[in-house]
Amino acid sequence: MNPRTEDVFFAVAAAAVAPRALGGLWLRGWAGPRRDAVLELLEFFLQSANQPKPLRLAHHAEAEQLHDGFDLTATLQTGKPALRMGLARRAQGGLLQLSMAERASRSLQSQLAVLLDEQGFGLVACDESLPDEAGLMTALIDRLGLGLDLRNEEGLWSIEERLTDDEMASHFVQMIPKAAKRWQAVVVSDEALKSLTLAAGQLGLHSMRPVLQSLHAAKIVAALQGHAKVEEEDLGFAVRLCLLPRATRLPGQGRGIHATPLRMRSHKRRVLVGIDRAG
Fold first, then answer.
1. Max Cα distance, the chain (Å)
2. Sequence-distant (≥ 6) Cβ neighbours of residue 21 within 8 angstroms
3. Taking 50 as the threshold, does the pLDDT of residue 223 lie above it?
4. Contact (CB, 8 A) for 93 and 50
5. Phi, psi dihedrals of residue 95, rounded to the nearest 5°
6. Neighbours of 191 (CB within 10 A)
7. CA angle at residue 114 from 214 to 148, to 5 degrees?
8. String of b and e for 46-67 (b: at least 16 CB within 10 Å)?
9. What are the residues whose beta carbons fall under 8 Å from the beta carbon of 231, sequence distance 6 or more?
10. What is the pLDDT of residues 26-63, one digit of tens each?
11. Which of 68, 81, 237, 249 is the most exposed, having the fewest neighbouring CB atoms within 10 Å of its CB?
12. Does the pLDDT at position 241 exceed 60?
């Protein structure tokens, strides 16, 4: 299987295993068969994890819909105060899915960033922005631990394929329930943690949040592969899926917008090894 497609499977499986711990998925790409295939795969994996489908949130929704409040329609119909449960509380432990996230108001994005810290759910942000457009707010991107970019189609599966029909999907369906139970017990060495911290710094990520998210991702990927401790391959996935999508610079370069993080490597360990040598 192509490495980029393999990354998609691991990212989506990790999101299904621990949506709250990882914060969610920053899914860049335009509406179409490939993005639909990723979202279908996510629902398929969530089902295997005994998780509900993501709750849908439109980009034009008012921020107040995220919070509990009065249900005006029900109140007028019954003549008694009726409460409405906000989407954030309804999504606790699971996922919200925000369509056309780049067009969401700053108010909605800001509220989502705050609630991701407070309410215990994850967010799938479908970002259709062009490479030279602003896209999501930095505060929201910072909270989405996983990142996939489908805008560059090189190396991706054909649009006729359904990812749920791939034999790798069947394998993950078997591994996801096991990984959900044991990923937190996966052992992480001091050297592995140092590698992730070094990688984050060299990619221009100086907050501890990306490091913690990549640590969670490495443990989840290890559990998905049946590893009792985090190995170099698991760290490679964590760097590519968590750190590279949000990189503000590359080793040896000045600060700049991350343009093509997923086009950098032809081998799954290249990025990690390069960063280790740089240190």
1. 69
2. 145, 213, 216, 220
3. yes
4. no
5. -130, 145
6. 11
7. 40
8. bebbebeebeebebebebeebb
9. 222
10. 999 999 999 999 999 999 999 999 999 999 999 999 88
11. 81
12. yes
